[in-house]
Amino acid sequence: MDDSWTVNRQDEIERLQGVWDALGAGDPGPAIESQADGVVFDNGPGAGPWRHTEGQPAFLEMFAAFLPVFGESFHQTGTCIFANEQFAITLVAETGEHASSGDVFDNRAIYVTRFDADGKTDHVWTVDLDSEDMERFWQRNPVEST
């Protein structure tokens, strides 16, 4: 086992925090550019019907279908608390309001991001701390996945 997997590196935290800060400011470019072509997302129930995507095109399709559900209100604020050249852990507040029903979307999530040999994101797992609320949100506001 690689003993360095538990080493927290400030430079990697800053790199990831920059991606989250850009996303929070409305610029998804750095997040998309940081992904490997074959990136896999395994999401918690906050993602609604888009719980699993494989490959960047599938992620972008999910992103394009997910965001309109909230009009202009969806927002993520990420705080990277651990990172090294192998993976990162980020605490993410996800908020929004359903564009039609007005239901509030308010989720706390933990994102675990794994990097490939080139430093690109190759797999993301999300754990929704408000999973029951997220399941109820999507039950009240069903959508079809694409």
Protein described:
The chain has 146 residues and is α+β, with helices and mostly antiparallel strands. Helices cover 28% and strands 35% of the residues. It contains 4 helices and 6 strands. Strands 2-1-6-5-4-3 form a 6-stranded mixed beta sheet. Strand 5 (104-115) and strand 6 (121-128) form a beta hairpin. The longest helix has 15 residues, at 10-24. The protein is globular and about 50 Å long.
Which descriptors apply to this entry?
single chain; 146 residues; alpha+beta; 6-stranded mixed β-sheet; 6 strands; 28% helix; globular
User: Which strands sit side by side, in order, in the main sheet?
Assistant: 2-1-6-5-4-3
Q: Estimate the helix proportion, in percent.
A: 25-40%
Distance between the termini: 40 Å
Q: Figure out the total of helices.
A: 4
Topology at a glance:
Blueprint: H1 10-24, H2 29-33, E1 35-42, E2 52-54, H3 56-66, E3 75-83, E4 87-97, E5 104-115, E6 121-128, H4 131-140
Parallel strand pairs: 1-6
Antiparallel strand pairs: 1-2, 3-4, 4-5, 5-6
